[in-house]
Amino acid sequence: MAPAAAQVQRCTDTRTGQVTYTDGPCPSHQRSVEVLPAQTPEEKAAQARQYEEAQARWQAEQARTEALRRAEAEKAAAQAAAAAAQRPPVQIQLPPPAEPQVVPYPVYPYPPAYPPGHRPRPPHGKPPPPEPEGPWQCNVFRCYDGKGNVRPRP
Fold first, then answer.
1. Of the candidates 104, 151, 106, 117, which has an alpha carbon nearest to the alpha carbon of residue 132?
2. Cβ of 7: how many Cβ atoms within 10 Å?
3. In terms of Cα–Cα distance, which of 52, 31, 62, 43 is closest to 5?
4. Measuring CA to CA, which residue among 41, 44, 35 is closest to residue 5?
């Protein structure tokens, strides 16, 4: 004989955290959770069968939806191809080549060719310092003579 399944409530006191179990409702100051009895092997097997059947139904529905979507896409592609075949091809007309434009100022080629009568500008800045006389030793930045004199490199 199978045991009778009674509804069991787990009551947790919100102030103290104490847990009690009862077959009736919990008091208002306690939180209530329904405790389910353990399943028998037969109930577990029935639940597994239901899950597998639901999975099979879902997969069949997905396959049917995918097949309908593919069929609609193929039908739309065929209609688009038929409509494109009925339209005449597009003729592209290019405008005639433009006349060369005449600019009102002279255009000089590169490298620059100076116009007639052009005088080059004088050089800018100070003239370079004169070369040192005598036995000077120069490095990248300065020149030194044997007497301890230093000057910038020319």
1. 151
2. 11
3. 43
4. 35
